[in-house]
Amino acid sequence: MCPTIHILIFKIDTFSLFFLFALASAAFLMRYELKRNNYPSFLFFELIVVALIFGIVGGKLYYCFHNWTYFVANPFSILFCISGLGWFGAFVFGGLSIVLFLKIKKLPVLKILDMNILVVPLGQTIGRFGCFISGDGCYGIPSDLPWAMSFPNGLVPTHTKVHPTPLYEMIIGICVFLLLWKLRKKETPRGSKLALYLILASLGRFVVEFYRLNPKILLGFTAPQIIAFLSIILGIFILLSEKLRYKVEVAR
Q1: For residues 204 and 174, is the Cβ–Cβ distance under 8 A?
Q2: Buried b (16+ CB within 10 A) or exposed e, 29-67
Q3: Could you report the average pLDDT of every consecutive run of 10 residues in the chain (252 residues)?
Q4: Are the C-beta atoms of 85 and 63 separated by less than 8 Å?
Q5: Stated pTM of the model
Q6: Which residues pair with 10 in a beta bridge?
Q7: Best CA proximity match to 92, nearest among 208, 211, 202, 171
């Protein structure tokens, strides 16, 4: 594990470096997709700024809520650093802020989300690799499987062999990204690519949660599992409702 990277006289936090790399990759791909679909190229910058600001706020709130004792003892160390973000908080706040922004700008929400949703699993994949390299503590429960590993030099060290859950989420992210990349130029019912992401990525996280250390809060499920389940329901609703609307429009 490598929590920090030394470049000449500079010492860089590994997770922060991969966070910035994920952000830059998402911004580049978003700009490319918007330009390919004849939208103003500057729109990508507005969307990235809105998602980044509210995503960080949501991620911090989610992380602080689930680590309340640590937050009370170390408020500034959590609030003023890039690490210490909860993915679902960032996704929900960032996603809702983009929807609101697009509505204010009177732009087609589902259409633009469809063409840009592939940047999310790309960013997740890069971000989870940063989690894995830095050993930031989002690994899983103890395991004796052949691929289990320890993180003795991580930010949150453990000498016990555990499930490398960041790698599991990387594999899921890569698969979802490749699927959406393959579908990006295909004409599909509005919102279907967004729905596919919500269903597949959330299903993957729901399963991975069984191997993570998050506490169970309701009916034996963790908070991420509950949010993932709701995301799957939302994805199915979007997929079915927009598919029905598409058939009605074609019939006319």
Answers
A1: no
A2: bbbebbeeeebeeebbeebbebbbebbbebbbbbbbebe
A3: 68 79 89 89 86 84 69 60 68 89 91 91 90 80 91 82 92 95 87 93 94 87 91 92 65 56
A4: yes
A5: 0.86
A6: 7
A7: 202
